[in-house]
UniProtKB/TrEMBL annotation:
Alphabetized UniProt keyword annotations: DNA-binding, Transcription, Transcription regulation
InterPro entries: Tscrpt_reg_HTH_GntR, WH-like_DNA-bd_sf, WH_DNA-bd_sf
Residue ranges occupied by any HTH gntR-type domain in the UniProt entry: 13-81
Protein name (database record): GntR family transcriptional regulator
Pfam families given in the database record: GntR
Domain of life per record: Bacteria
Length: 124
């Protein structure tokens, strides 16, 4: 299996974010299986025509999100990210619900704010 990433230099989205999003989406969908070894930072940077710091930034963000894990000299691998992502999302939702209630919003107003935020993030 190979990692096929496409970076659009003309896109409004920064290259590191394009890289981060593509790896995260593939890991979460199972297209990149748990345990899949990712290329080295330098190797992937060279393949994509990016600076090593750009790839390193994407890898750091993915690791912080629990999508990948670095095992020292052994390399960087796709982690069992579903559980970590779901836990982080549940924590964010709980924080939002508490804040919405503190602000005096009713359930419907809080739910409408979430729906609007989801539309903005995901599109229709």
């Amino acid at each position: 299996m190979t990692l096929k990433i496409v970076i659009d230099p003309g896109a409004a989205t920064a290259p590191y974010e394009q890289l981060r999003a593509q790896i995260a989406d593939r890991a979460r969908s199972g297209k990149l299986p748990v345990g899949f070894k990712l290329p080295t930072v330098r190797g992937l940077a060279e393949d994509l025509g990016l600076a090593a710091n750009t790839v390193a930034k994407a890898y750091r963000a993915l690791e912080a999100d629990g999508v990948i894990e670095t095992r020292g000299r052994n390399g960087t691998f796709v982690a069992a990210a579903g559980d970590a992502s779901e836990r982080l999302a549940a924590a964010a939702a709980a924080t939002y619900a508490g804040e919405a209630r503190r602000l005096g919003l009713g359930r419907e107003a809080a739910r409408a704010a979430v729906e609007e935020a989801l539309r903005a993030a995901y599109g229709k």
